[in-house]
Amino acid sequence: MSELVLVTGGAGFIGSHLVGGLLSAGYRVRVLDNFSTGHRENLAPVLDEIELLEGDVCDPAAVERAVAGVTFVLHQAALPSVPRSIKDPLLSDRTNVGGTVAVLDAARRARVERVVYASSSSVYGDSPTLPKHEDMTPQPKSPYAVSKLAGEHYLRVFYDTYGLETVALRYFNVFGPRQDPTSQYSGVIARFCMAALAGQPCTIFGDGAHTRDFTYVTNVVQANLAALTAPAAQAAGRVMNVACGDQITLLELVATLGDLVGRELPVEFAAARPGDILHSRADIERARRVLGYETAVTFREGLDRTLAWYEARPA
Asked: What is the predicted pLDDT for the residue at 313?
């Protein structure tokens, strides 16, 4: 019998891609989601192949049921978005920190073998040093970033104190199919793809010169699968960047998207948002060394795939 993996937040954008990747790799999959930001339709193609539990990671009883009999946990459940956390820091903390502690505590009591945690490049803040490497001192600029960093610290404590194997993956600007473009907290690529297809302007907060290490979701799936089974001596208790190691401005993003749709896209500029980071690029050498991670899908190829998905998506 194949090992059972719990994906918290498995109905979300990244979580649902992880579910598909796990099934393709031969794992059995259980999903815990409260559908506050995830969508049931993300799991529609695989509902007959998974066990779906509706519940909240902040509810210890729900988490205890979810981890029963599980070998690994991919902990994706969180309230994403810097602006959302600035608007409601208490909710961000309660979900992202409290939910993570609940998952870790239930996992160690259930003798789960390993927990892999979705952290964020936002923990680095706006240090001018590039690329960002894992040994840098974090300088979070938002409640969301603080909550993700707190989760990393809890993972390390649960490894050191209880022997629960943990791995934290710092995602850099993940994009791809199933990212919700209708939410005010959605990623920039989802919003720009929909604007391009609708013939509307792409709204850039700031001057468009700030940079991101855009990472197609397939690369994140690859890193998570590798993190499940990487040797404990190299991986347990550690943090690793997951990205492409590239640096792309928002203006370059608009230009590439325009090239893919075959026309120049109009741009509207708005005031920069509080908590936004100016420049980001990852050093991915640790993930290469420990996980055997390599970029499977480039930025342009991923953008082309994402655009095609939104184009085929029903209105």
From this structure: 84
Please name the residue that has the structure tokens 């300088």.
139
**Structural tokens at position 7:** 């994906």
- Cβ atoms of 19 and 43 closer than 8 Å: yes
Q: What is the pLDDT of residues 72-110, one digit of tens each?
A: 999 999 998 888 999 999 999 999 999 999 999 999 999
Q: Which residue ranges form the domains of the chain, and what is each CATH number?
A: 4-173+217-244+282-296 (3.40.50.720)
Integer Cα distance of 142 and 160 in angstroms: 27
Instruction: Tell me the C-alpha distance between 264 and 261, whole Å.
Output: 8
- In angstroms, the CA 125 to CA 138 distance is 7
3 state SS of 264: coil
**Residue 314 pLDDT > 90, yes or no?**
no
Predicted confidence at residue 276, as pLDDT, reads 84
Identify the bridge partners of residue 215 per DSSP, sorted by sequence position.
174
Beta carbons of 178 and 13 less than 8 angstroms apart: yes
Question: Residues 46, 67: contact at Cβ < 8 Å?
Answer: no
Task: Please tell me what DSSP assigns to residue 97.
Answer: I
* DSSP 8-state class, residue 137: P
